[in-house]
């Protein structure tokens, strides 16, 4: 049974990206096509998006939209069928999608992303002739009002609406604004209620989606369980428990055409699980690129991450002496909190040849670290899914991860029983504390000395299925449930 879906996201790889949301929004439509789901993606008309759009055609006049001229464009880019909200007064500005060059959030973010959700709702109601989606899929807080607009429009007019799905990529980011915005955002007075958009005295974009969407997903089963607890629920655990079976976790995949060591233009030589010789060229290239000592007495440990408290990067700095004591070297790619950036810069300056650092983001270097490091460290305090450890599995870097969220779901700990059964793919440790991380590094050093066991774990990881095929089947089934087609 074929099905039509509208995916609504504030960023989509490779057009605009700040994190894993973009990777998911960019890869899932292609995977869903194999399941009979035709997806159009709606995203804001940032300059980079408009520049990449091909075959652009104005298909809907949206004037006025929050005080400025706006129109909906249809076109293609990066293999995706796109709707682009061309509203220069909202999106034609420097900085990343959410904040200006000074790092401060744009003060009109409530309007900018309410506009995205309003247009999604209009498309869901059939405003564009020839396009009537069965499902509107909203990603994260920036699209969270789309289920709310569709819900209240259907209640007021007693008209059909599509099924709605709300996906949480990170519950920590909820999109809060003052209740005074209610009329400006075009929300009806009755929406100001605990079973509406109200959240702790303000308007909660994400809370609205969690409350009013037909189905709620997050990006791993373990994270779906964690966010229903007071410890992990970020103040929304009660609502998530109330939604009951409407909440589920569907594990992310990665685009295995983009992340494929056998055909990766960022690498000096191709390799695969059954032909590993080419990986040595990436190991050497990484050491040269970051100025690391070329010595195999200990592994090179990589990090590709936002440098933040959530990601446990402060713990890495605290455990660095233990890492270096084992003869390991550290290759870091990332940016984030100023104090952590400064901490890694000091560590690199104090340990030349043993700590290599690139502050910022570089797609080619991200691929080279995955291919050239021996282990990849992901010590997150909480992690909805994580993609970097999936890339590590595919590229032959052993993930060393905290036992939380999607990290727990995707990495099989190579403990004694798992090794005996031939099932381990990496190492897990309990919490993002220096003691727990140091214990994991001790285990990593022991495993490194048993290269036969290391190779078995490496092969297990490289032959794991980290693609979107399984998740896409589950999303397609969920779409049909939300649309009432089963």
Short précis:
It catalyses: [(1->4)-alpha-D-glucosyl](n) + ADP-alpha-D-glucose = [(1->4)-alpha-D-glucosyl](n+1) + ADP + H(+). With 486 residues, the protein is α/β, with parallel strands linked by helices.
What distance lies between the first and last C-alpha atoms, to the nearest angstrom? 10 Å
CATH architectural grouping of the largest domain: 3-Layer(aba) Sandwich
Low-confidence stretches: none
What is the count of structural domains? Answer: 2
> Which structural category fits the helices and strands?
alpha/beta
Proportion in helices: 25-40%
Assign the CATH superfamily of the largest domain. Glycogen Phosphorylase B
What distinguishing features does this structure have?
six-stranded parallel β-sheet; single chain; nine-stranded mixed β-sheet; Rossmann fold; 18 helices; glycosyltransferase; 18 strands; alpha/beta; 486 residues; 2 domains
Explained architecture:
The structure is a single chain. With 486 residues, the chain is of the alpha/beta class. It folds into two domains: 265 residues, Glycogen Phosphorylase B (Rossmann fold), CATH 3.40.50; 202 residues, 3-Layer(aba) Sandwich (Rossmann fold), CATH 3.40.50. It is built from 18 helices and 18 strands. The strands form three sheets. Strands 3-4-5-2-1-6-7-11-12 form a nine-stranded mixed sheet, with helices on both faces. Helix 9 crosses helix 12. The protein is elongated. The model has no long low-confidence stretch (mean pLDDT 96). It is an enzyme of class 2 (transferase). Pfam families: Glyco_transf_5, Glycos_transf_1. This is Glycogen synthase. It catalyses: [(1->4)-alpha-D-glucosyl](n) + ADP-alpha-D-glucose = [(1->4)-alpha-D-glucosyl](n+1) + ADP + H(+). InterPro entries: Glyco_trans_1, GS/SS, Starch_synth_cat_dom.
């Amino acid at each position: 049974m074929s099905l039509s879906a509208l995916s609504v996201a504030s960023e989509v790889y490779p057009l605009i990206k700040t994190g894993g949301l973009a990777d998911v929004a960019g890869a899932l439509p292609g995977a869903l096509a194999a399941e009979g789901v035709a997806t159009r993606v709606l995203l804001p008309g940032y300059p980079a998006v408009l520049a990449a759009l091909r075959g652009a055609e104005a298909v809907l006049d949206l004037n006025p939209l929050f005080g400025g001229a706006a129109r909906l464009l249809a076109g293609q880019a990066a293999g995706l069928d796109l709707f682009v909200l061309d509203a220069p007064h909202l999106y034609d500005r420097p900085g990343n999608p959410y904040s200006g060059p000074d790092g401060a959030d744009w003060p009109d973010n409530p309007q900018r992303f309410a506009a995205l959700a309003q247009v999604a709702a209009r498309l869901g109601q059939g405003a564009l002739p020839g396009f009537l989606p069965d499902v509107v899929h909203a990603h994260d807080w920036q699209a969270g009002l789309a289920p709310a607009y569709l819900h209240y429009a259907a209640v007021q007019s007693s008209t059909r609406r599509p099924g709605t799905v709300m996906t949480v990529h990170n519950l920590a980011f909820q999109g809060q604004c003052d209740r005074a915005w209610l009329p400006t955002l075009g929300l009806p007075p009755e929406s100001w209620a605990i079973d509406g958009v109200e959240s702790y005295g303000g308007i909660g974009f994400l809370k609205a989606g969690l409350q009013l969407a037909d189905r709620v997903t997050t990006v791993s089963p373990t994270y779906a369980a964690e966010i229903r607890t007071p410890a992990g629920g970020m103040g929304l655990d009660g609502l998530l428990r109330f939604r009951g079976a409407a909440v589920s976790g569907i594990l992310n995949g990665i685009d295995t055409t983009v992340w494929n060591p056998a055909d990766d233009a960022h690498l000096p030589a191709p390799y695969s699980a059954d032909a590993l010789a080419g990986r040595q060229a990436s190991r050497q290239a990484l050491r040269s690129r970051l100025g690391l000592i070329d010595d195999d007495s200990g592994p090179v440990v990589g990090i590709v991450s936002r440098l933040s408290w959530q990601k446990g990067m402060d713990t890495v700095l605290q455990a660095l002496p233990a890492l270096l004591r084992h003869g390991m070297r550290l290759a870091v790619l990332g940016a984030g909190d100023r104090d952590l950036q400064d901490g890694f810069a000091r560590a690199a300056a104090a340990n030349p040849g043993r700590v290599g650092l690139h502050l910022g983001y570089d797609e080619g270097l991200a691929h080279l670290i995955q291919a050239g490091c021996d282990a990849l460290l992901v010590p997150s305090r909480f992690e909805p899914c994580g993609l970097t450890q999936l890339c590590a599995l595919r590229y032959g870097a052993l993930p060393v991860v905290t036992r939380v969220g999607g990290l727990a779901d995707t990495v099989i700990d190579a403990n004694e029983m798992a090794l005996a059964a031939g099932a381990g793919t990496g190492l897990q440790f309990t919490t993002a504390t220096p003691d727990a991380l140091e214990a994991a590094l001790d285990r990593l050093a022991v495993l490194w000395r048993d290269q036969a066991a290391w190779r078995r774990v490496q092969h297990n990881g490289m032959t794991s299925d980290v693609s979107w095929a399984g998740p896409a089947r589950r999303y397609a089934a969920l779409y049909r449930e939300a649309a009432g087609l089963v």
